[in-house]
Amino acid sequence: MKKLLLSFLGAALFFSGSAFAQEQEVSTTAKEDYKWQVRLRGVGVIPHNRAEIGGIGGQIDVNNNFIPELDFTYFFTKNIAAELILGTSRHTVGTLGSSLPEAVGGPATANLDLGSVWLLPPTLMVQYHHQVTDNFKPYVGIGANYTIFYNEKSGVAKDISYDNKFGWGYQFGFDIDVTDKFFINVDFKKLFLKTDVSVNASNLLTPEAQAAGTTELSIPAKVKIDPMLIGFGVGMRF
C-alpha cells in the first residue's frame, strides 16, 4: 500500500510538472503574440526652465506638477515598437528677478505673475525592447512631439499667448510582468519643449506713459521648458 501510494504521488508530481511546463510554454508563446500594449501611469512633471525675456529681463518660473498619462504601444517585431504618449498638464508661470521699465512704474527687481497655461505634448517614440528575464523587460526610445498650449490665463498682464511648437525627446524604462497580460511599468522621459511667448502688459502702463501717447507694452520671450517626466504605472497587453 505504501509503495502504491508513493508511486501515485510520484506520477502525480511528474504529470503536474509536465503540465506546468506545457502551460508555461503556451503562456510564453501567447505573450509574444501580443502586438499591442496600453499603460496608465502617474507622472511627475519637472520643468527645467530657461528663457530670454525682452524688455524686462529676468528668468522664467514654471511650476512642477503630477498628472495621469496614457500611452499605446505597437510592436512591429519582438524588439522594435512605437509608442504614442498622451498627457496634459497645467503649470503656473511667472518671471523671477525682472527689471520693470519706467512705463510700468515698478521696482528694479520684481517677480511677475503671468498666470497659468495647459500643455498638451502628444509624443511618438520609436523604442527598442530587450527581454532580460522572463519577467523583466527594459527599453529605450527616441521620438518627436508637438506641444499645444491652451487655456491661457494672463495673471497681472492684459493678455498672454504661446506658440505651438515641434520638439523631441528620449526615454528609458522597464516592464515587470505580473501575469502574461498585466505588468508594472517604470518610465523616465526627457522632453525638449520650447515656445515663443508674447505678453501684452498694456494694462500696467502708468498714467504718465499713457499721457505721453504710449498705448501698448509688449514683452516678448523665447522660453525653453524641457521637462523631465518620471512615471510609475500598470500596463496590459492585447
TrEMBL record:
Lineage per the UniProt record: Bacteria, Pseudomonadati, Bacteroidota, Flavobacteriia, Flavobacteriales
SUPFAM superfamilies assigned: OMPA-like
InterPro entries given in the database record: OMP/PagP_B-barrel (IPR011250), OMPW (IPR005618)
One annotated GO biological process: transmembrane transport
Pfam families linked: OmpW (PF03922)
Annotated keywords: Signal
Span of the signal peptide: 1-21
Protein name in the entry: Outer membrane beta-barrel protein
